[in-house]
Structure formats: structure tokens, C-alpha cells
């Protein structure tokens, strides 16, 4: 395919967009100069780019009907089997539908991508298959993953297995619902503001956002390079640790990674927390207007119960935690508009693997079908672009700079405490908005629960949801946060809680 030469009119429009005052003669000169460089683009087409490997055979599978899809949590069903032996042998795993699985449709929750089929396997997919796991399909996720609830996907709301009128949480909505319902053993989620931990909390399962960069994001549709995480969801801490061991470690293709040591996470599950110091962060409780008192009480009781396993538990104050969600908003929305939307999901100026088929498909679709974005995506685009145009990226930059102060505030606490605890979400699962709800309700219900989760996407600390007990028939989640690189300690504390209370999650 030869690159088309730009017309004078096309160049004139570009020039105007950059406030360049060029005559037609100027534009003709630039047009001739551009022609020579276009040969380089033509040569790039001829060289052939490397792609992510696709090792194991598969069929495309099918989209299940409503009888097979009680919670509307499945986007696609298939069966891709890898190695006959390995640590994941016998395990059925579902992928969030922003993870590339070659030959199987990938919608990323959005109508504009319906029909797109990747031609590559994400790094974590290859690792799961090598370890003997069976990938059984794709779980519904929110529209471009921009919701902490479960009502924005183009395929309709994902229903909470504990109460079909309630949200599962998002954006890994289908992943958590299918684990909670017992339809799969494990799931992959992705997390930019809480999207593993929120649905794990509202569905009553275990979900870990690993340390930033521990698990490669290669082959997964991103939102914002500095907050992208992917990780495991399961019904037991053992299965979370097992899946993390398989998918963690550098792949040489993801600039988010920085050589973090992969540990034997299963070996960290010793059943107790002797000599572990736990700080209950008081700023994670009592959020005005959204905190539910039963959630506060259940989480405090759960934290103090770890004293029975040898931990030292104290209440502490980290005032800057209250600013975390503001910092996330300060650069997350502008960042995602730049990378995910204007940059056609991949952006530029970073080294690593680019999923060019997805980039091209999204870029074409957003130019012709933008009206089909969800309300949350539209709001993010409008605000992100407004801030960029009016303030020239200044507040994105301030947000990234202030994020280092937030990380230091937590790290100061980690000088005295091994883990921090607070509610994963200030409230239990909320009612799903009606289909004709006003835009304000749709958007507010998508982001109202991220206050405690979003700060740790900024700082990169590992953070895990641990199901405590039900209140009013709905699960309550406790979040355990650890030092950067100490996912093993987070898992150890979670396992001690599971051991004390027998909190292996049963299939619904």
C-alpha cells in the first residue's frame, strides 16, 4: 500500500490547525518536500514489523445468547488450550475484553470496535497458555474501561451475581462477575483507577492490582501509560498468587516495566501475619456523602481481627490520601484523552510494542462513529481536550509532579508499617441506573466509588481487595496496600485473613 501524497487543501487545513499562516506557494513547496520523505513510509510497509507470537491453535468461538449469559458478563466464549502441563493446568481463565487474544473478537466495551479481531496474543496470554491454563473467553468490560460501575458497556449492564439489580463495579465488570458466579476459576482484569479492585469488592472476590510494571501490559488496550496495570481476580488468595506468578516479569516490550523482581508468591502464604505492622488509614473512611457506616465498621473489624494472627494493628493518619482522587483527575483525564483517544489508543514517544492493527482500527472508527462512545468517554474527551487547549498541558504536568509527593506520603507511612488498610470502596454495590437515566446520573454513578482506589494507580503501590463479610446481602471489601515491589506481603496478609475467617469464596 503506497502512502497518498497530501493535497494542498489537506496541508492548508493542518497549517490552520497549528496557527501557521502559509500561502499557496508556501504549501506547494512543502508538498514537494514532503514527497521525498514519503518514500521512507513506503519502505516501512515493505520491511515488515515484528508481531507478538501466536503459538497455540484456537477457533474464534461464539457470542453466547442470554440463556448462557445470566449476568451479561460474557462478551465471547471460546476454548484456547495451551501446554498440557504447568502450574495452571486444569484452570479456566477469562480475559477482560481489552486483552488481545488472536483470532477472537475484541470490543473493549465499545460499539465502535464491534467486529475487530486481533492478530496477536498479549504477553500474559502466552504466559497463561504456556503454564497450562485454558482461556475460555472474553469478559465484558466498560466502554473503553472508563467506568468504575458496570452500566456503560455497549453490550448492556453487567449484573451483580449477589443482586441482579446492582452494579458489579468496573471496569473489569464481567471478569469479577464470572469469578464470583463460579463460571471460571480465575480472571484477568486491568486497573487504571480501581478497575480490578472495585468489581472484586462489589462481587465479593479477591482482586490484586500489582505493583506498577510488575506485569507486562503488552498487547492490552491502554488508557494512560503511567497508570495502566493488569492483574488477577480469583475466589482464593492462593489462586491470585498462582496467576500472578505466571504472568509477572519483564517481557522486554513494555516501558512501564523496570526490572522488578518476581517472587514466589505462593511461598508467601504462610497463614499468619506474625510481626507484621498494619496501619488503618483513617482518611480512607468517612467520605462525606458516599461512605456507608456498615462498610466502615466491617473493614475496621476485619483489620483488627488480624491481631489474632500476630499482627500489630494501629490507626494512622495520611492527610494527603484525601487529595489522591483530585490528583488522579488532574492528569488522568487529560492523559487518557491524549493517549487513548487522540493517540488512537497507543499514542507515541514511548519504546515498546505497538498493536498497530488495533491502533488503525480504533483510529478509523473514532473518526466516523464517535457519537457511539459512552457518556463517560464523551465527558472525558470534552474535559481532557478543554484542559489541554486552555492550559497547554500545565495541569497534567502539575498532577504528575504532585503525584511524587503523594507517593512519598505513603512511603513515609511504610517506614513504620508493612501494609495499609482501608475500605476498597466507601459504599457497597449500587443500583444500576435505568436505561433512560440522565447523563449526569450515568457519569456520576460511574466514578463515585474511586476515592480510595485511584491514588494507588498514581503511586504504583500494590493494592488488593479482600472480601470481608456481607452487609444487607452485599459484599464489603477491605483494601490492603503494600510497599512497591512487596506484592508478596500484601498476599500474605490477605491469606492470613482468609485463614482466620475461612474466607474462601464459594461459587454462587
TrEMBL record:
Pfam families assigned to the protein according to its UniProt record, in alphabetical order: Amidase
Transmembrane annotation, as ranges: none
Domain Amidase intervals: 67-491
Top-level taxon of the source organism: Bacteria
GO molecular function: catalytic activity
Database matches in NCBIfam families: PRK07235.1
Protein's name according to its UniProt entry: Amidase
Annotated organism of origin: Peribacillus asahii
Amino acid at each position: 500500500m503506497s502512502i497518498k501524497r497530501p493535497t494542498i487543501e489537506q496541508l492548508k487545513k493542518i497549517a490552520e490547525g497549528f496557527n501557521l499562516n502559509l500561502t499557496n506557494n508556501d504549501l506547494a513547496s512543502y508538498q514537494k518536500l514532503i514527497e521525498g520523505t514519503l518514500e521512507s513510509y513506503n519502505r516501512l510497509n515493505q520491511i515488515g514489523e515484528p508481531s507478538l507470537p501466536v503459538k497455540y491453535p484456537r477457533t474464534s468461538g461464539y457470542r453466547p445468547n442470554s440463556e448462557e449469559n445470566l449476568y451479561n458478563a460474557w462478551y465471547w466464549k471460546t476454548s484456547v488450550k495451551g501446554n498440557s502441563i504447568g502450574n495452571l493446568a486444569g484452570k479456566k481463565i477469562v480475559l477482560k475484553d481489552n486483552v488481545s487474544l488472536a483470532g477472537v473478537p475484541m470490543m473493549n466495551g465499545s460499539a465502535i470496535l464491534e467486529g475487530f479481531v486481533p492478530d496477536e496474543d498479549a504477553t500474559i496470554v502466552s504466559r497463561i497458555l504456556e503454564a497450562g491454563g485454558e482461556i475460555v473467553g472474553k469478559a465484558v468490560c466498560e466502554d473503553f474501561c472508563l467506568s468504575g460501575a458496570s452500566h456503560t458497556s455497549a453490550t448492556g449492564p453487567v449484573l451483580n451475581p449477589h443482586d441482579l439489580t446492582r452494579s458489579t463495579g468496573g471496569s473489569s465488570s464481567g471478569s469479577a462477575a464470572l469469578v464470583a458466579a463460579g463460571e471460571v476459576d480465575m480472571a484477568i482484569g486491568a486497573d487504571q483507577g480501581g478497575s480490578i479492585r472495585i468489581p472484586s469488592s462489589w462481587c465479593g472476590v479477591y482482586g490484586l492490582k500489582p505493583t506498577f510494571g510488575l506485569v507486562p501490559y503488552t498487547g492490552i488496550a491502554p488508557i494512560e501509560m503511567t497508570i495502566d496495570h493488569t492483574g488477577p481476580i480469583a475466589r482464593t488468595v492462593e489462586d491470585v498468587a498462582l496467576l500472578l506468578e505466571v504472568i509477572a516479569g519483564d517481557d522486554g516490550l513494555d516501558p512501564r516495566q523496570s526490572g522488578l523482581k518476581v517472587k514466589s508468591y505462593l511461598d508467601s502464604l504462610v497463614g499468619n501475619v506474625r510481626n507484621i505492622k498494619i496501619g488503618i488509614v483513617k482518611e480512607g473512611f468517612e467520605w462525606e456523602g458516599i461512605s456507608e457506616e456498615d462498610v466502615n465498621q466491617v473493614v475496621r473489624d476485619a483489620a483488627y481481627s488480624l491481631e489474632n494472627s500476630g499482627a500489630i494493628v494501629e490507626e494512622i493518619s495520611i492527610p494527603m490520601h484525601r487529595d489522591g482522587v483530585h490528583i488522579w483527575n488532574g492528569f488522568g483525564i487529560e492523559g487518557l484523552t491524549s493517549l487513548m483517544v487522540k493517540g488512537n489508543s497507543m499514542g507515541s514517544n514511548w519504546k515498546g510494542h505497538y498493536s498497530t492493527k488495533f491502533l488503525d482500527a480504533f483510529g478509523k472508527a473514532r473518526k466516523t462513529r464517535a457519537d457511539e462512545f459512552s457518556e463517560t468517554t464523551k465527558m472525558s474527551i470534552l474535559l481532557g481536550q478543554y484542559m489541554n487547549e486552555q492550559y497547554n498541558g500545565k495541569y497534567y504536568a502539575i498532577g504528575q509532579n504532585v503525584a511524587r509527593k503523594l507517593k512519598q506520603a505513603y512511603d513515609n507511612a511504610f517506614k513504620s508499617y508493612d501494609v495499609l488498610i482501608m475500605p476498597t470502596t466507601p459504599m457497597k454495590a449500587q443500583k444500576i441506573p435505568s436505561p433512560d437515566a440522565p447523563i449526569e446520573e450515568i457519569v456520576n454513578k460511574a466514578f463515585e466509588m474511586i476515592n480510595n482506589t485511584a491514588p494507588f494507580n498514581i503511586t504504583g503501590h500494590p493494592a488488593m481487595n479482600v472480601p470481608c463479610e456481607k452487609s444487607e446481602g452485599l459484599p464489603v471489601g477491605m483494601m490492603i496496600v503494600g510497599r512497591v515491589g512487596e506484592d508478596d506481603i500484601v498476599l500474605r496478609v490477605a491469606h492470613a485473613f482468609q485463614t482466620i475467617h475461612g474466607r474462601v469464596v464459594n461459587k454462587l
